[in-house]
Amino acid sequence: MTDFFKGIPQIKYEGPDSTNEFAFRHYNPDEIVLGKRMEDHLRFAVAYWHSLAYEGHDPFGGRTLNRPWFDGGMEAAKMKADVAFELFDILQAPFYCFHDADVRPEGATFAESKRNLDEIVDYLAQKQATHKTQLLWGTANMFSNRRWMAGAATNPDPDVYAYAAASVKANLDATHKLNGANYVLWGGREGYETLLNTDMKAERAHAGRFLQQVVEYKHKIGFKGQILIEPKPQEPSKHQYDYDVATVYGFLKDFGLEGEVKCNIETGHAFLAGHSFEHELATAAALGILGSIDMNRNDLQSGWDTDQFPNNVPETAVAYYEILKAGGLGAGGTNFDSKIRRQSLDAEDLVLGHVGGMDTCAKALKAAAALLESGELEAAREARYAGWKSEKAQAMLKGSLEEAAARVTAEGLEPQPKSGRQERLENLWNRYV
Fold this sequence. Notes:
By secondary structure, the protein is α/β, with parallel strands linked by helices.
């Protein structure tokens, strides 16, 4: 045990009337929602990078948080793991997620970094064997080190592609060993700054082949988890090849991977792409590639990915409505890709950021479930498209353009606009949230 969280109790459910800030008001893991435990719906995960590795930096300033495990080798990495599982226990979190660079110190060579990773994975395996919290997903950090400045799989240097292959192989092996439910690829630098020095066609082809190789290796080692891509339109690259869910789907179709790879969708990334989070979720569900989610929010006044904990129940409820309508997250989960503010220095702040986020999601889930169970919104949607259920409408879809056009004169069609009833449905939504 460390003393980092000394005096902070395990967070338990006390109900909506509780005034104890170290208690859940809405997140009751065992509460049944639509026939399933709330914990099994939400599948909360703590992000190792924001919770344990984040130093408080932003685009204009460096470290503000001083943690005892920040500087040092393997002993510091093991202390970080000790603190991590203490945090997981306090929150009763069922899952966590990590990048390789979050859990192990960088070595002078790849071989040294790999040895460090192997050692810390063994340590994490020991932790998982004696704690509730398990691995939701692992990934390789292929964006921070200067070697990745021109991309990983899309790098113009084939030696960097090879280094990326070695990194993903090592981390997929680690995820497999820790029984991770998913493996994520986020291409933060899989993009470009200017077309003046970029062969876009070649880079895209290399990225596609790389993903095919990852899937081939997954099957070779018998990894049963999902392979996920996390879309983001820009930042750090100016243009990224995984702009949004629809772009990722087109990419997967091009390389024959639409049945092998799904999406890990982040709230803040959807915002940067000019979409709502629920739009990205509904798109992924419609295309059959909804895998998992990163839950956070961006500041509407800031121009970058601020990764704040969610605190807006109505907005979050819309997202969970689409998730529930799609059948849930399956092997995915709700990962808090969220960080405390750089002025929030205390251990209590880290715990309470998660408590607030978990309560927000729980309250949103219950509101979404109640509306879905009522059937009111789905009935309104169905009524709007009722005309398409007629035999005549279905025959028109199966027939030719000429046959569809002929209906206008043959039947004297002069369609009149019908209200979309948006305000009425917004009022309906607000009754539940």
